[in-house]
Amino acid sequence: QVQLVESGGGLVQPGGSLRLSCAASRIDFSIYTMDWYRQAPGNQREWVTSINSDGNTGYLDSVKGRFTISRDNAKNTVYLQMDSLKPEDTAVYYCRANHPRRLNLYWGQGTQVTVSS
Question: 12-24 pLDDT, tens per residue?
Answer without folding.
Answer: 999 999 999 999 9
